[in-house]
Amino acid sequence: MNKNPISLFALAVFTFHGTGAYAQQRPNVIFIYADDLGYGDLECYGAKNVQTPNVNRLAAEGCRFTNAFAVAATSTPSRYSLLTGDYSWRRKGTDIARGDAGMIIRPEQYTVADLFKNEGYATGAFGKWHLGLGDKTGEQDWNAPLPCGLGDLGFDYSYIMAATGDRVPCVFIENGRVANWDPNAPIEVSYTHPFLGEPTGKSNPELCYNQMWDFGHNMSIVNGIGRIGYMKGGGKALWKDENIADSIVFHAVRFIQEHRREPFFMYVATNDVHVPRFPNARFRGKTNMGVRGDAIVQFDWTVGEIMKTLKKLKIEDNTLVILTSDNGPIVNDGYKDQANELLNGHSPAGPLRGNKYSAFEGGTRVPFIVRWPKEVKAGSESEALLSQIDFFSSMAKMLSARVPKGSAPDSWDSWSTWTNKAQIDRSWIVEQALDHTLSLRNKNWKYIEPSDTRVKLMKEENVETGYDSEPQLYKVDEDIHENDNVATKYPDILFQLQAQLRKIAKGRVNNR
User: Fold this and answer.
1) What's the burial of 21, exposed, middle or buried (CB within 10 Å: 0-12/13-18/19+)?
2) Residue 390 DSSP SS3
3) What is the pLDDT of residue 446?
4) Which of 64, 281, 363, 419 is the most buried if burial means most Cβ atoms within 10 Å?
């Protein structure tokens, strides 16, 4: 007979939250978030000019979804919504962030990382962040520890880029400090004025020897590439674009190795396909599409290295891996990298209309693969309608976790759909275009609200915006390319979706 009643309780607590058998039954979770990777950019989604064997293998060992959506057609709002379960268009300040933006997700918000951490998981974030750092925009001291960062959002460890590859500061931030900070080259960043004596892409284009800008990326020059924003200093802390993927993989793999005996959650946000595309030399020439195609191959390598590590450590069967993209593809986004000229018949958005920034499907419909051998049938496919905003509540369901009241208000439990146990369509999803035009989508119909923006074609990017002063209605189950606006043909459906979107925009609407 046990004479110490506390011991059984202590054992139970250790088994639940520690590294005991029960904890090991809970899966590790790795969320791989590609940047600007289109619906048609992967071989398993029909791409012909690029080979992606590692992603193909992931799909063959799990479920490939064909009707999955990011929340927005641009990066920052999609990432905000994914990590908070809160629609970005409900909150000001969630548009494409500057590199010196203050924290967009505030420390008091409950995040997906908080969810996992409070369930006993080790949590890590790697790669592109683009959700702001520090308290206020433009007031960060990059030469000292940031007063607030990812550690305040539930991440135990972080090795991130402050924004994107085309924005300054061009340094990695590790746990709130500039990695490899160089005291001999203190960092200054400005998005309002250049620094005296520092060359810029506009005034010194001859110094852009690695990648020449086409539009917009003509401010500070780092590693022979023009950027958005001005930066001075950095020294040995400055990244080399050709090594960004290697740096992300190295730190991600190390995190897996260090936490292999306890459950962990990893947010791995790659940079490869986003401009400036400057893949490592070992990936150059792997496709006939130039640096954009080669960058997709580099992304596939990243996936392969993560999966190889899981297999080597014999934890791949108990690891849930989700792979998707933050928005649709873009070909020319500001650099003269011949991405358009070298498509050679490749369609980054597949059969969809529009691209990144657009209200059309190509802006938000993305690849989506879920692999977990214990729960997801290998080689399966699903046409179920789903949204990335449900990541939060679906993970809460998987963990049987309690979520604080008011958290993840727009996220629904779609766990059975994400694991393909049921083909349950989300009853509706909302998509957000660059100018905040909203679209309401269900399994059969898509409504795009009227827009005051007159630009129907972004000429430099060659993107159809989908903006129109008149309402648009498409029967997407038959017209996947959104060719035929049938708003006048189906006035009752149009009125129904208009009213529903207004109701959603005014407040929260439950799924069931």
Assistant:
1) exposed
2) helix
3) 98
4) 363
